[in-house]
Design goal:
The chain is an all-alpha fold. The chain contains four helices and no strands. Helix 1 runs antiparallel to helix 2. It is globular, with a radius of gyration of 12 Å. About 5% of the residues are buried.
Length: about 70
Amino acid sequence: MAFEEMVKMVSILRREDYDVKKGPYTRPNMRKDKIMSSVVTVLEQKFGIKRAKEQLRKRWSDLKTREPEQYW
């Protein structure tokens, strides 16, 4: 994943509160799936590369746990 793609993904997920830090939501799994679908769409439109939701979820998890310096 290119750096620009990663920056765009992180900005969307933080803006949309993907990690539910701002409060409880009803149906959080459905909400997260909808957010991830929009991330897939935006990345495909902007960079022309289609990525699977599962791949992006894994990358997001890796960024937070294994690569916190890149996350920030």
